[in-house]
């Protein structure tokens, strides 16, 4: 058996920044701090910080007045920020800069009088935060079929934005239908789907024909991880999204000669290596790492945290 290890995989710059931010907050304030939603969508990461004493909440009302609160990498709406101010919370913003870019675009288009079509998945933390920037101006669509139900007049002033973690093919299918229905639609100056999402999808597409089985390390609520699994399934291959080696099933490997292993942008490398070690030990597999694109992106810690470091 052979293991193909896709590169790039795992943590992106935004996830690295958010985790570094939380670690630094623990160093400065101690572990008795709060995070609004999961810092990133990964069970291993969230469980690790929970064991250290961090509390993850789904409502600002759960945070005691005057506490330290970290906003997750997925971003939050202005209403959440206002509620935090009213509770006198000391907030640190770990929103990924690429998500912030989409928020800024939403505000700008709304101020210019555009009807904004947001391509994304209902209920995702990032989508909720983005729609909160201009709720009266934004309409969410998930599929080309939903585009057909839009009731804007043919000459309406329309722009579109996308969730940063979508499948490139999924987003393009919706965009093509939007352009067909509304040729005047305005697109963002730069693509919203993040570099890491695109690169991890490209790696799987490049390598999937060589594999019989695809294993994606990531959590079920990670949008970008699910897209990687779906690429494998669309190619007619067995593909599974797992949090770690404990979820691997022996029957998956029956008759398999080549396993492709990758990880979503919020999955730590340690879980990848544990799976590789398990497969190697169990099946005597050989290892080949294939790099399809180079990544050198980094994001600095939030300005308010850098000031605290210097104090």
TrEMBL record:
Gene3D superfamilies: 3.40.50.11270, 4-hydroxy-3-methylbut-2-enyl diphosphate reductase, catalytic domain
Binding positions (isopentenyl diphosphate): 41, 74, 124, 222-224, 266
A GO molecular-function annotation: metal ion binding
Residue ranges that the Swiss-Prot or TrEMBL entry lists as coiled coil: none
Organism: Maioricimonas rarisocia
Biological function: Catalyzes the conversion of 1-hydroxy-2-methyl-2-(E)-butenyl 4-diphosphate (HMBPP) into a mixture of isopentenyl diphosphate (IPP) and dimethylallyl diphosphate (DMAPP). Acts in the terminal step of the DOXP/MEP pathway for isoprenoid precursor biosynthesis.
Enzyme Commission number(s): 1.17.7.4
Keywords associated with the record: 4Fe-4S, Iron, Iron-sulfur, Isoprene biosynthesis, Metal-binding, Oxidoreductase
Protein name: 4-hydroxy-3-methylbut-2-enyl diphosphate reductase
Family: Belongs to the IspH family.
CDD domains for this protein: lytB_ispH
Annotated residues for binding of [4Fe-4S] cluster: 12, 96, 194
Pathway assignment: Isoprenoid biosynthesis; isopentenyl diphosphate biosynthesis via DXP pathway; isopentenyl diphosphate from 1-deoxy-D-xylulose 5-phosphate: step 6/6; Isoprenoid biosynthesis; dimethylallyl diphosphate biosynthesis; dimethylallyl diphosphate from (2E)-4-hydroxy-3-methylbutenyl diphosphate: step 1/1
Cofactor needs: [4Fe-4S] cluster
Annotated residues for binding of dimethylallyl diphosphate: 41, 74, 124, 222-224, 266
Residues annotated as the enzyme's active site: 126
């Amino acid at each position: 058996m052979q293991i193909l290890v896709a590169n790039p995989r795992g943590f992106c710059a935004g996830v690295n920044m958010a985790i570094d931010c939380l670690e630094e907050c623990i160093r400065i304030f101690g572990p008795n701090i709060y995070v609004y939603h999961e810092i990133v969508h990964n069970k291993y990461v969230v469980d690790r910080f929970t064991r250290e004493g961090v509390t993850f909440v789904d409502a600002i009302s759960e945070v005691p007045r005057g506490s330290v609160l970290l906003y997750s990498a997925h971003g939050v709406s202005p209403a959440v920020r206002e509620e935090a101010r009213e509770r006198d919370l000391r907030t640190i913003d770990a929103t990924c800069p690429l998500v912030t870019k989409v928020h800024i675009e939403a505000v700008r288009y709304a101020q210019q009088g555009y009807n904004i079509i947001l391509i994304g998945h209902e209920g995702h933390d990032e989508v909720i935060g983005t729609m909160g920037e201009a709720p009266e101006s934004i309409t969410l669509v998930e599929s080309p079929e939903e585009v057909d139900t839009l009731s804007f007049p043919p000459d309406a002033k329309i722009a579109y934005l996308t969730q940063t973690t979508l499948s490139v093919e999924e987003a393009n299918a919706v965009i093509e239908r939007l352009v067909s229905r509304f040729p005047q639609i305005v697109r963002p100056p730069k693509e919203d789907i993040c570099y890491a999402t695109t690169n991890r999808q490209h790696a799987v597409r490049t390598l999937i024909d060589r594999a019989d089985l695809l294993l994606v390390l990531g959590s079920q609520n990670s949008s970008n991880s699910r897209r990687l699994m779906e690429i494998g399934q669309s190619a007619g291959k067995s593909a599974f999204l797992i949090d770690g080696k404990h979820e691997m099933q022996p029957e998956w490997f029956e008759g398999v000669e080549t396993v492709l292993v990758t990880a979503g942008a919020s999955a730590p490398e340690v879980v990848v290596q544990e799976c590789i070690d398990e497969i190697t030990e169990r099946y005597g597999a050989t290892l080949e790492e294939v790099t399809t694109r180079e990544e050198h992106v980094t994001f600095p810690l939030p300005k308010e945290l850098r000031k605290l470091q210097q104090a």
